[in-house]
């Protein structure tokens, strides 16, 4: 009988799978793998290998069966431990709301770090707080898994030198690193900081998608990553609310419509479909050319390409409705008036876009 050997799983990967498994107990192993890969991409660790499906199933089952609360369970006010001070609640709720958009549930461990770090972050910026909380929580989680002492000196230095503020601050930090005064960060945590401080959404790929759809709906034709050839809407009072509503509905469409569950998950993807489509192609056939694909693979690619086209069309329609409603509310309109101007006491929905997407069935029930 051949002895079975246990496959070594990177502690960071294991922690991501466990956190996702406990936050979403219905998620399949393939979905957990997909989410773990996305989180690795977002933290600069995209080359870290993932375990096979069977190993993910085992990790997920053990995480879900673990008794009692865990530091890596999702945070809520009801589950907030007593060592998190009450005066941190406002900052925590802002960060928690952002974590909903990232589909990366804020854990109790991360919430503790938010409470510790909030006084160091200018204006309590939730994106900045969440980013740093991720960095510290990841190091703590990895150290605990390895039975090692938590070592945070490299990120402590980035915070101390305030490297996100300017090139001058980064220059100071670089000199401290080059002379050995402080250690270099193994994963450069602040590569998105100029964008964070300007209000760009580097943390959540779906927020980037929402930005792009809204810009096109406003008549902009993005020339680069962020093109404002018509006007820059980011100073409008309704803009952050429109982005949030777009993310909510894009997330809901992905959740309810199986054909779109894979879109909008790739960092840097403009409207969510092209980069995601390329990733699906790579997962299906690797690096082989179209002429080498089998008939079944070609058919699958056609199905995904059609879904990508439909995603773009629905996203643009959704953005038009969201912009119109946001402007209406900002001008004094009522948040609960329907598209036709009627009042039924229910929350507004972008009905036209949902109907075109097939979100409702013929009798109006969700499909």
Q: How can the largest sheet be summarized?
A: none
Mean pLDDT score: 78
Quote the beta fraction: under 5%
User: What is the CA–CA distance across the termini?
Assistant: 50 Å
Q: Based on the structure, what is the oligomeric state of the protein chains?
A: single chain
Total number of helices? 14
What overall geometry do the principal axes of the alpha carbons give?
A: globular
Radius of gyration: 22 Å
Number of domains: 3
Number of strands: 0
How would you describe what is shown here?
The chain has 367 residues and is an all-alpha fold. It has 14 helices and no strands. Helix 2 crosses helix 3 and helix 12 packs antiparallel against helix 13. The radius of gyration is 22 Å and the shape is globular. It starts with 10 loop residues before the first helix and ends in a 10-residue tail after the last helix. The N terminus and C terminus are likely disordered.
Keywords:
367 residues; mainly alpha; disordered C terminus; globular; disordered N terminus; 0% strand; 3 domains; 14 helices
Quick structural gist:
The protein is mostly helical. It has helices spanning 11-23, 29-42, 53-65, 89-102, 108-117, 126-146, 153-161, 167-178, 193-197, 205-217, 239-256, 274-285, 295-330, 351-357.
Task: Describe how the helices and strands are arranged.
Elements: H1 11-23, H2 29-42, H3 53-65, H4 89-102, H5 108-117, H6 126-146, H7 153-161, H8 167-178, H9 193-197, H10 205-217, H11 239-256, H12 274-285, H13 295-330, H14 351-357
Helix pairs in contact: 1-2, 1-3, 2-3, 4-6, 5-6, 10-11, 10-13, 11-13, 12-13, 13-14
């Amino acid at each position: 009988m051949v002895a079975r050997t246990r496959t070594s799983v990177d502690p960071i990967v294991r922690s991501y799978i466990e956190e996702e498994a406990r936050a979403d107990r219905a998620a399949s192993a393939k979905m957990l793998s997909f989410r773990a890969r996305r989180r690795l991409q977002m933290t600069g660790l995209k080359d870290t290998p993932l375990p096979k499906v069977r190993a993910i199933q085992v990790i997920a089952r053990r995480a879900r069966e673990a008794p009692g609360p865990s530091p890596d369970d999702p945070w809520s006010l009801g589950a907030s431990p007593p060592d998190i001070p009450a005066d941190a609640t406002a900052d925590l709720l802002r960060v928690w709301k952002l974590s909903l958009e990232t589909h990366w549930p804020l854990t109790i461990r991360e919430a503790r770090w938010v409470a510790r770090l909030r006084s160091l972050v200018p204006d309590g910026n939730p994106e900045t707080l969440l980013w740093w909380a991720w960095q510290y929580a990841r190091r703590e989680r990895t150290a605990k898994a390895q039975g090692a002492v938590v070592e945070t000196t490299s990120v402590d230095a980035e915070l101390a030198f305030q490297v996100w503020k300017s090139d001058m601050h980064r220059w100071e930090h670089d000199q401290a690193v080059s002379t050995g005064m402080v250690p270099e960060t193994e994963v450069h945590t602040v590569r998105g900081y100029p964008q964070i401080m300007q209000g760009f959404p580097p943390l959540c790929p779906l927020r980037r998608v929402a930005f792009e759809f809204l810009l096109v709906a406003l008549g902009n034709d993005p020339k680069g990553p962020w093109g404002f050839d018509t006007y820059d809407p980011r100073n409008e009072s309704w803009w952050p609310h429109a982005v949030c509503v777009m993310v909510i509905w894009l997330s809901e469409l992905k959740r309810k419509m199986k054909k779109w569950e894979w879109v909008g998950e790739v960092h840097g993807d403009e409207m969510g479909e092209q980069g995601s489509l390329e990733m699906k192609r790579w997962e299906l056939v690797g690096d082989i050319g179209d002429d080498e694909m089998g008939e079944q693979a070609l058919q699958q690619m056609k199905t995904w390409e059609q879904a990508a086209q439909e995603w773009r069309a629905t996203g643009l329609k959704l953005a038009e409705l969201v912009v119109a409603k946001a402007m209406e509310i900002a001008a004094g309109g009522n948040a609960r008036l329907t598209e036709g101007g009627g009042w039924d006491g229910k929350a507004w929905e972008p009905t036209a876009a949902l109907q075109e997407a097939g979100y409702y069935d013929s009798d109006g029930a969700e499909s």
